[in-house]
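Exam revision sheet. Question 4 asks you to relate a sequence to its structure. Input first:
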Amino acid sequence: MLLTPHRLLRCYATGRFPMADGRHDPVVYLVDPERRGILPLDGLHVPRSLKKVIRRGGFEIRIDADVPAVIEACAEATPERPSTWLNDELIALYAELAAMGHVHSVETWRDGRRVGGLYGVVLGSAFFGESMFSRVPDASKVALVELVARLRAGGFTLLDTQFVTDHLRRFGAIEIPRAAYLLRLKAALARPAVFPREPGCYAQRLVAEDGAASGSRQSKSQTS
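Answer key, structure tokens:
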């Protein structure tokens, strides 16, 4: 099947996502795993060390500054990741979806240079996280927390991570059966959401609110 942007959106809407075996492999496969990775938006865990990084504000957050550049960065080979699942066809398709408003990027910048980020596909109140990259420590981690904060603010209900890695598990990602995922997906597609694109660091607000909530819980526990 020849993939077009609209066909690719229909794949996401039915629970499938595309992958290639490598950057230079021309074949695109549609994947529909028996167990699906998600990151519950109300179950985000931010490691203490990362909270300190976010509070210090060492990164500038930019949204959709250059989505194709983020996609290309995610497709780059690195010593830790010598091959990626993004081939030229998928890179072009995601760039087209970005032009249609269905793909967004969260980018971390430092000293005028893009040093990390991620991108994903949006349908209804579902965000399908596709890939991330980091050129300095914590850059992609901050982007992930920023993403969750913006999804919460925009009324999203589903953050699909496709698979669960050890890295994502640290942030609260879990696996659920395909049937359970499809029920969540159906509900998310039926509900509208808006991806916030305005400037500012939502992650700092999230960490501050989490700290205030933790302090309140601790205070109640001490007085009960």
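Marking note for examiners. Residues 5-223 form a domain with the Aminopeptidase fold (CATH 3.40.630.70).
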